[in-house]
Structure formats: structure tokens, C-alpha cells
Amino acid sequence: MEDKQTLLDNIAKVHTTKMGVDRIRRNLSLADVDVVEWCKSRILDKDAVISRQGKNWYVTIDGCVITVNASSYTIITAH
Fold first, then answer.
1. C-alpha angle with apex 3: 26 to 63, nearest 5 degrees?
2. Residue 26 in 3-state DSSP?
3. Predicted TM-score of the model (pTM)
4. Integer Cα distance of 33 and 18 in angstroms
5. Helix (H) or strand (E) holding 20
6. Nearest Cα to 55, choosing from 76, 74, 69, 72?
7. Which residues pair with 75 in a beta bridge?
């Protein structure tokens, strides 16, 4: 099983789709911010709790959970 360092080492690969941007913006009530950069900064935060379950990484920080596909590094959603 991979450890969280794998996600951190590949942070440059983290991205999402147009639909993902809309979904995350709606779920988190984010206005005019770069959703991917916002998520990356949360993933890199020293207080983030990162775990891998199956095909996804789950990053929990400040009451929000960011879900990232472990093979494609696509941000699926955030709540």
C-alpha cells in the first residue's frame, strides 16, 4: 500500500475536469478561486490527514474531504 508521500510527490499531476471544478466550487461554496490550486494547497497543508482506500486518496483538512483518484491524480470531488 502506498503512503501519503506518493500523493505529495506527485502533487504537480493533480488536476480535475471542468465538471469537477463546477462540482467542487458548488460543494465548497468557492467563488473566484483556482479550484485545483486551492485543493493542492489543502493537500500540502501540514495538518492534512491523507489516507488511501482502494483506488482513491482521501485528504481531510479543516472539516473538508478531498477525493483524488490514485492512478490519474484527478480530483473527483470535495465536500
1. 30
2. helix
3. 0.93
4. 14
5. helix 18-28
6. 69
7. 68
Q: What is the DSSP letter of 14?
A: -
CA distance 23 to 29: 10
Q: What is the mean pLDDT of residues 31-47?
A: 95
Q: Read off the amino acid at residue 32.
A: D
Nine-digit cell at 39? 485543493
d(CA 78, CA 28): 7
Q: Which of 69, 65, 57, 60 is nearest to 5 (CA)?
A: 57
Q: How confident is the model at residue 70 (pLDDT cuts 50, 70, 90)?
A: very high
Question: Has residue 1 got a pLDDT over 90?
Answer: no
User: CA dist 7 to 4, 10, 37, Å?
Assistant: 5, 5, 15
